[in-house]
Amino acid sequence: MAHTFRRCSLALIFITMWLLIKAKIDECKRGDVTVKPSRVILLGSTVNISCSLKPRQGCSPYSRRNKLILYKFDRRINFHHGHSLNAQVTGLPLGTTLFVCKLACINSDEIQICGAEILVGKNKGNCAATWEKRTQVHPPITTELSGPKNLTWQKQCKDHYCDYLDFGINLTPESPESNFTAKVTAVNSLGSSSSFPSTFTFLDIVRPLPPWDIRIKFQKASSVSRCTLYWRDEGLVLLNRLRYRPSNSRLWNMVNVTEARGRHDLLDLKPFTEYEFQISSKLHLYKGSWSDWSETLRAQTPEEEPTGMLDVWYMKRHIDYSRQQISLFWKNLSVSEARGKILHYQVTLQELTGGKVMTQNITGHTSWTTVISRTGNWAVAVSAANSKGSSLPTRINIMNLCEAGLLAPHQVSANSESMDSILVTWQPPRKDLSAVQEYVVEWRQLHPGDDTQIPLNWLRSPSYNVSALISENIKPYTCYEIRVYALSEDQGGCSSILGNSKHKAPLSGPHINAITEEKGSILISWNSIPVQEQMGCLLHYRIYWKERDSNSQPQLCEIPYRVSQNSHPINGLQPRVTYVLWMTALTAAGESSQGNEREFCLQGEDTAALGQAPDRLVHA
């Protein structure tokens, strides 16, 4: 007994082409456009397009002054100087493509000559039957297909290996739900055997073409609150499903729409975001198969006015008795808050006592520095602007962030959490705890000397928190100066500590640059270890010394590391004895190799420049 099933695909049915929407082309008064072999072609076919001018319709009687240009939609694809133009076009997509021929004359706008639409489709699907053979005997096979209005088709296969028959007929959608029945019969000298009849409808075996010519239109250029998606479809389609997502997302939003007629409104898109759109079609609400997804449309939504407020922080630095430097810093708005490309920031500085705006500045950077008087009460406001407007300004009062000792957090610690993060913990102020509104943890790379160009980082923490994990711009083997501020409404207190995410012993020791004698003691001066060789936060310096040519263990003095320190005295050395001295540095991971060696000899009451030959010092 043979088992039968059917296979048939419907592509574009040319008899329904007239249902497609046609583009309007002006009447061809100046010339003609011809398309060969036809304006209706199969997918993958090549067409020849010709454009010719009618008599006395060119720029001048001289053909070389006539420049004919062929456009595919609004894209120029060919041109030629003369009275005619010929172009061969391949690779046209399914659906309708508009070609327009224009004439360009010197010192004048292009003139439209004529145009043509070319419609691309696929052959109608032929209905075919396949079956599974259950025996090694290969008798002749007869396949019978019956349909509505008592129509019957029959075809015989005499091939010994036959398991497929193409009827060479087309099923039309005149009655989409009409039943068709297929039956396969095998005949030999012993008799015949037939399969069970297989019944199906037009909708069971037909898949529509995927939609094409997808485009999107935003109702207002300044808003994405409503936009409309347009597409073109086969005329028999009753149901569409749309899916869309931001280009950087894996999750699709899905919408089913009935009788959409090639358009649907979307209401939930985000501003200034690139989206991907795809559409699929179905011929019946409940029966049949979905088409393949259409080609992807990618489009970016328009900008909207920024929302949210900037996170602003600042530093103060005294210049002299009457002036101070204020450096403002702020973080970029998130993409969802910026809602467009931020073009600039507006900074307003105001003296509150007089109520007068002193400075307004526009900058493209995320920091701004100015010099103001040390007297008076100052406030700043900072806002971000894109092409549609500005965010609400962030307003802060400038105060001495470490002035209130009673508000200073205590027991501040900084411990490595990973290669690129540090856990900072602290205890609340011992007094005025209820006045704390928030904590700010600030960190920047430790850089002895001028640190005005070192980036500043910070994060805010609510008043009930006593820890923060810092990871922004944290690198291993680098020391950071970390401050924890406790802020009330009009004052602040702070504590600081050094911390690193990973450390090892320094790569070198300090370089001694001078030794001087001062009233029986020695003052040693050195150059700091280069930042890139410190390999973390330095904890101590060690100064070693011993008598020259002595085999005894050296004596040492260990001093705590301080950023600004570069000299230290040593007492109790014997006069007129030559010593050798060197230095090392320590992190929590270990001690560096020694730095350079220097010799010195204490002269008692005399003062001499040290580091020279000891015999010269003796005779000084």
Please give the structural blueprint.
Layout: E1 3-7, E2 31-36, E3 40-42, E4 47-53, E5 67-72, E6 75-81, E7 84-89, E8 95-104, E9 111-121, E10 126-132, E11 141-146, E12 152-157, E13 164-170, E14 179-188, E15 191-194, E16 198-201, H1 202-205, E17 212-220, E18 223-232, E19 239-246, E20 253-258, E21 263-266, E22 274-282, E23 297-300, E24 312-318, E25 323-330, H2 335-338, E26 344-351, E27 356-363, E28 367-373, E29 378-386, E30 389-390, E31 394-398, E32 410-418, E33 421-427, E34 438-445, E35 457-462, E36 467-470, E37 480-487, E38 492-499, E39 511-518, E40 521-527, H3 531-534, E41 540-547, E42 555-560, E43 567-570, E44 578-587, E45 590-591, E46 598-601, H4 614-618
Parallel strand pairs: 3-9
Antiparallel strand pairs: 1-10, 2-4, 4-7, 5-6, 5-8, 8-9, 10-13, 11-12, 11-14, 14-15, 14-16, 17-18, 18-21, 19-20, 19-22, 22-23, 24-25, 25-28, 26-27, 26-29, 29-30, 29-31, 32-33, 33-36, 34-35, 34-37, 37-38, 39-40, 40-43, 41-42, 41-44, 44-45, 44-46
